[in-house]
Amino acid sequence: MNAFLNRMESLLGGEFEEFLRRYEGENFRGLRVNTLKCSPQRLKELLGIPLEPTPFCPNGFYIPADVQSLGNHPLHHCGAFYIQEPSATSAVEMLGVEEGDFVLDLCAAPGGKSTQIGAKLNRTGLLWSNEIVRGRANILLSNIERMGIPNAVVSNAHPEALCERLSERFDKVLVDAPCSGEGMFRRNSEAQTEWSEEHVRSCAERQLHILDSAKKALKPGGVMVYSTCTFSREENEGVMERFLAENPDFHLEDAGVSFGRPAMEHARRIFPMDGGEGHFAARLRKSGESLPTDFRSAAGKADSEILSFYDSLFEDRPFGENISVVKDKIYILPKNYFCDTKGLPILRAGVVLGEIVKRRFEPHHSAFTAARPEDCKNAVDLVVDSADIRAYLHGEEIAVSSALRGYTAVAVSGMTAGFGKASGGRLKNKYPKGLRTLQ
């Protein structure tokens, strides 16, 4: 660690002692409200804990140090919030996502930034989230599903291959690059043990290579944000300087934010003295005229049996009718899904409406998490601190109105968490076993 501290002293100068004082204090803990599910004010009321706003994101809040086990809270299960280090929300704010955008998150796991983008898109446009490591891509998919994002694609591709195939398709591209993780040392001891000056240099080379892939997926006139959770100049300003020197069709631009502190022209740095564990982000604009993304529907209407099944679960087909059947699964693809993706390692596109099991249809969890209670034919809304919701999340049957029959959404204070099957005043539990609580 001495080499790291020497580098930090050289970087910070007179602020080094303050850095050390903050570094030895409590870790910054935060959450981001998922506005697809609820408002910040509503979440504050339901959680009943003091939440102080962070400077990095309008929907980001600090979690008090004495609050534990929020990951087991019913509101976490239904995707009302994402537990996220506060400064990690800064990059998406600088990306400037607008409704209707086509956005690529190239290094997306575990999904904090992707789900932040998904909330900003508000079910419009397209979110493509990619992660090269398969195990991490599965975690990404789980978080996309929990947060109820119906217009997302999750892939497990090499960045170069993916960006070649999806050349100039995206209005916005986020490259939250793998890095030496200096900003995560206090939270991740493994990052400390892996650190070396050689590791920093190798990270910088890899980051530049990823950017060279990412630029191909960006439309002319589009915006790309490069971010890391490290402090090293080689991986931050150094990578940007090299990329700009090699790509004169890109330039840095002001993202219109005031958090953290200036780095190179228009880029921002965040140190623990600024209220977060550590981040760097820079916004780049590609020259040229922005044009609408060219896409064609990748599927069409399904047969009448599938549509009848769809209508038995939901009102007014809330995910559209871009339906595709692959083996035994029925997918409702995003409205703006590309049709020329054959051969790409895609884990999921859109939501899974259901599965075909022995010639009958069975609903899938992901369709209910992406739906609102009012979208569902049947729904039961449980109180956030009730014994019923604890029992449901544990995998138990619960009592419901005898008037309810058939597949029924289970909501927590107006936010869907999953579903069950009602009959005779009981709800048979359909919450996935891998998500259930242990107590």
Condensed summary:
By secondary structure, this protein is an alpha+beta fold. The chain has helices at residues 2-12, 16-23, 40-47, 74-77, 90-95, 112-121, 134-146, 159-165, 189-194, 197-217, 237-246, 304-313, 365-369, 387-394; strands at 30-33, 52-53, 60-62, 81-83, 102-105, 126-130, 152-155, 170-176, 218-228, 250-252, 261-262, 268-270, 279-286, 323-326, 329-332, 346-349, 351-357, 360-363, 379-382, 398-399, 406-412, 415-423, 426-429. Helix 8 packs parallel to helix 10 (197-217).
Global mean pLDDT: 94
Model regions low in confidence, pLDDT < 50 over at least 5 residues: none
What overall geometry do the principal axes of the alpha carbons give? globular
| Alpha carbon gap, first and last residue | 41 Å
Helix percent reads: 25-40%
Can you count the helices?
A: 14
The number of distinct β-strands equals 23
Specify the biggest β-sheet.
10 strands, mixed
The radius of gyration over CA amounts to 23 Å
Proportion in β-strands: 15-25%
Instruction: Quickly give the structural class.
Output: alpha+beta
Question: Could you walk me through the main structural features you see in this protein, from its secondary elements to its overall organization?
Answer:
Helices cover 29% and strands 25% of the residues. It has 439 residues and is an alpha+beta fold. The radius of gyration is 23 Å and the shape is globular. The mean pLDDT is 94.
